[in-house]
């Protein structure tokens, strides 16, 4: 069930992005607007993913920060 929902939402996002890109191409922005729409849709997806991670960590009671692990070279 979760897999089918995941695929359905992916297809919906793909269709919305294609429609938005097509709509902006017909404006005075031209073909370069398709790349802008792609960048905006990707940024929106990244923001939603970060919000989901923060909310999940908050619900679990863990610290809601994202940390970066540094690689320590072997000696």
From TrEMBL:
The chain crosses the membrane at residues 12-31, 37-55. It comes from the Bacteria. Keywords: Membrane, Transmembrane, Transmembrane helix. This is Arabinose efflux permease. It comes from Corynebacterium glutamicum (strain ATCC 13032 / DSM 20300 / JCM 1318 / BCRC 11384 / CCUG 27702 / LMG 3730 / NBRC 12168 / NCIMB 10025 / NRRL B-2784 / 534).
């Amino acid at each position: 069930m979760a897999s089918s929902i995941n695929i359905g939402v992916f297809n919906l996002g793909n269709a919305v992005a294609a429609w938005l890109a097509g709509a902006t191409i017909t404006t005075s922005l031209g073909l370069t607007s398709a790349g802008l729409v792609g960048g905006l849709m990707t940024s929106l997806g990244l923001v939603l993913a970060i919000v989901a991670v923060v909310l999940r960590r908050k619900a679990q009671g863990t610290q809601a920060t994202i940390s970066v692990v540094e690689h320590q070279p072997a000696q």
